[in-house]
Amino acid sequence: MMRQISYYQAPEAEIGSKPNRWDIIALFLILGVFAALAWAATQMKAPYQVGHPLPISLDPSALPGYAAKTVLRMFIALLFSFLVTFTIAPIAAKSRQAEKLLIPLIDILQSVPILGMLSITIVLFIQLFPNSLIGPECAAIFAIFTSQVWNMILSFYQSLRTTPKELYETAAMFHLSFWQRFWRIEVPYAIPGLLWNTMVSMSAGWFFVVASEAISVSNQEIMLPGIGSYIRVAITEGNLPAMYYAIIAMLIVIFLYDQLLFRPLLTWGERFKMDRVDDIHPPRAWVYQLLTKTNWLKFIQIICREISEFCLNSPHCKMPSLHKSTLHTRYSKVFIWFWNGLLVFGVICSSVLLWNFITKAVSCVEIRHVFFLGMITGLKVTILIIITSLIWVPIGILIGLRPEASRFIQPIIQFLAAFPANLIYPLIVTVIIRYHLNVEIWSTPLMVIGTQWYILFNIIAGAATIPNDLRLVTKNLGVKNWLWWKRLALPATFPYYVTGSITAAAGCWNASIVADVLEWGPHKLVATGLGSYISQYTTSGDFPRIALGIGVMSFYVLVINHLVWRRLYNYAASRFTME
Amino acid sequence: MSNEPLIRLENVQKSFTNPEGKKLLVLDDINFTLHENEIVALLGKSGSGKSTLLRIISGLVTPTEGSLYFRGKTVQGPVHGISMVFQNFALLPWLTVLENVELGLEAQGMPRKLRRPKALNAIDTIGLDGFESAYPKELSGGMCQRVGLARALVVEPELLLMDEPFSALDILTSENLRNDLLQLWTDKRTRTKSILIVTHDIEEAVLMADRIIIFSTDPGHIQAEIPVHLSLPRDPQSDEFRQLLDKIYTLMTISERAKVTQTHAKTTILHPEYAYRLPEVSVSELIGLLESMEDHEVEDKIDLPQLADELHLDINSLFPLTEVLDMLHFTTISNGDLVRLDAGIKFAAADILERKNLFAKHLLKYIPLAQHIREVLDNNPNHRVSQNIFLDELRDFLTEDEAERLLRIIIDWGRYAEIFAYDYDAGLLSLENPQ
Q1: Where in the sequence is the domain holding A534, given as residue range(s)?
Q2: Which residues of chain B lie closer than 8 angstroms to A276, CB-CB?
Q3: What would the pLDDT profile of A232-275 be if each residue is shown by its tens digit?
Q4: Which CA distances in Å does B434 have to A285, B375, B388, B425, B430?
């Protein structure tokens, strides 16, 4: 036991060796990405005047540049999402008073249709940065940010609340400071969940980045250079080849994002998982392997480690370790009463304000009409979810039961889920126009194109968790056909189905704003629904009506969530989980 | 060496307040000192509050009443000089073995140049060399606990606290690790002056400790203190060892029996009889134990340590069983022996239906909660009552969790005995059979 020879080699020993071939590939990769983003950034601060449209070229050679700008917007939004997540979530997790306000607030903000909000925020940002493209740029980034940030906050908050007690005790026993505990224990513990949610957010973000780049507010077209505007111009000009170029460019962007970022990060995130699962097929990503094999990158890794060493452990960064029990007792009863009173007051004030704002411009009859439109959209969403479920549930179960098939198909579905469905819309519009199809019926499926994948995705995951024993025993007893579906497959995947459908349905509501009004060249197709109502008044800049539309949509989403989905979810959790 | 004790506890008491605002006493009247150069074992069933006591000593939990001194100074929060080994290791899975061991030094602000050799040295001492760059996920449980031990020892604590450190490991691994730890201790290769270990394994306590403190439940208090004068390493087969083991078993079962009858007496005053606690055991375990006694030469009597050994049961699983059999008047305990009563013998020999009848008879006769539920169901015109009614009743005297646990146990027993039926989906207790 007292052997002095140590097999351990400090990583420092490896820096000196000369670069290997992996280094060169990795270097070019990294430099390429940096260069593209830097160029895009310089283009963003161009001077700009409202009403003065930026020229968008439909030349395919301009597409890589537009794509780079679109990507950059995504990343800036992501950066802000992380900043906000790292500040809001700890506050909600550590303070009971803040938690009471923040968590329901985030829950509501999640259901607010982002695209409807865009028209309001864009005006604000243009006022903030007059005569500069930064205004609309900020509005677009803000829209992406609001599509990403909520579930990231919830995920981080959840992790903070569920961090094992023993890890906290370890931190206390070894006298870790508040700051050290955050970075050494709380953040790493949250990484797998946070990473997954970030990736889901990013996938949804592509849809909004495309939608928010080109927007008409108050009868003016504001276009930011990017793939979204490119498509917008292609639509107004009815230029079909340009459409295809844009779709191909987007496919390439998503592919690169998937390969260069998504997969390597998921592989890296594996190490932060708590449970010791003996996974025979850990996720592999070639980029991750490349990065771990290069020597130069190891050097960067060591620099990062030294920085973290400096930031975490040096004495002047040391903060006092907060003692847990003193934290809550500090709030006196008076303060809690005061705080609750303030909340109630705030809620009353804002609802009165909103009511006045809307009723000044809109009659009660119209409000009733908007609720009716909401019902129509709700009906559409319900029908869509039923139809897509009928299609994808059986297929998903069959895929999920075959591990080889699902390993092959899962990445493809993730890819499809990330692809912004609004790029496909114009293609379908051309079909509707050519064959003179009914707009009310045929525009509806557009809402679900982008979000149906969540159902399929979750069903596959659910089917994969059906224990092999259960599959064997049903085979052994001769349970077949419909009985097999009724007794095994459907109940076993039900909890997963509910989770998938919640996401899919919420996405449908949001997409209706884009999918209800369709254009192609001189043609304009409008379907009845809440989506077209919001979209129409966004164009004309009628703010009370936009507020009304958004309010009604949020109302429907919230009510349906609480009355239907949450109950189904709880029922599924108590009745159909494999425990 | 000073004569001042390392740790001194005076009249320590701990209570928690549950969400309904009720105060629950977990530890009561703890007086205890820990000196240098001794290993002390805190022995008790799970839920006896011994882990809470360990956390109070570590400074992680503050006592409600009483005072705690480390080297004569009052303890408020974790202090330097005490470190702890956790039951489930509590390693950070995202750090390598080396980084995990360095954690405590890092928190002290020690620069890498200084802390790395120290950590490597601790890793060597504990027999982990070769695993420095491994992640905890790659290691077996035994190896993980070695990392936990190295991490605790590298900060050179005067007092090492161990919270059931071997209970998550298999028998061979825990024996191996225990021997290595004792070797380190007798060779004085660590700077640790004293070890306090919490355990529910009686043999482990006798193998390691210079002093054994027996803990009893409801609320947790020190029942007895037994010095062990055998020299290390100890031979589990020796007569002295066996005698000591017997003594502790007897002591602990006496306390269990005393408690059963005592709570009987006490509860009639404070709460209705039906609300007293039942140990969590399943019917099949009870039957299994009664049946296993068939096979013995002296049929109706068996030495408890021997029984525990044969059935590979630790006290956490054995004592609840004997307790319930005692309540049901199937067995009784005398002088450290488990004795089968007439009903127990009859039960073991009966067929399935007869067993159910006998069980039902004893359940209704001796378990007040079963009686109570049956009475309510009999008096109800539909013979159907929601479980929430009973839960509400129990909640008046017990915590939320305890009430649910109690109802779950009695539903399990009642279903077996067929004294009532239960519908999970509707949450209904009834006298009907399923349609």
Answers
A1: 342-579
A2: 136-137
A3: 888 888 888 888 898 899 889 888 888 888 888 888 887 787 76
A4: 54, 20, 20, 13, 10
